[in-house]
Known about the structure:
Mean pLDDT: 88
CATH class: Mainly Alpha
Shape: globular
Number of helices: 5
CATH superfamily: Cytochrome c-like domain
Bound molecules: heme C
Distance between the termini: 43 Å
Number of strands: 0
Low-confidence stretches: 12-16
Order of helices and strands: HHHHH
Helix content: 55-70%
Largest sheet: none
CATH topology: Cytochrome Bc1 Complex, Chain D, domain 2
Structural class: mainly alpha
Number of domains: 1
Radius of gyration: 16 Å
Amino acid sequence: MWRTLLLLVIMPVAFAETDNLMPQRKQVLQELLKNDCGACHGLTLKGGLGPPLLPEALAGKSDTMLVDKILHGRTGTAMPAWEKIINVQEAHWLVQYLKKSR
Ligand code: HEC
């Protein structure tokens, strides 16, 4: 009885939570955005060699496509693959973070 109740409480939280990265890791990703991604996408992500990554620019684009570009890069462009240092969950978090106005 209690176990069922506990599951009912925990399950939705576990599934709704795409945002379950450690705070320290989020900070690392935010630094990475500024220092590494910023080198091409602009320090304020307004664009440079790479396209802008601001919420307005990403609004209509699918999360799957954006996550895929972060992880695997884009052949024939300067966009490198980041899968060695960013995992799928982190790439999803980055896309949500970029799409949210700050
Ligand atoms: C060496 C330059 C360079 C670096 C560093 C770089 N990018 Fe890019 N990025 C690009 C270019 C160029 C494109 C455009 C690729 C294309 O034509 O689809 C791009 C495309 C993207 C896109 C797709 C945007 C869209 O509107 O389709 C995302 C998302 C993205 N980059 C995120 C990142 C993130 C996150 C990082 C850091 C972890 C990063 N990029 C680092 C050059 C770079």
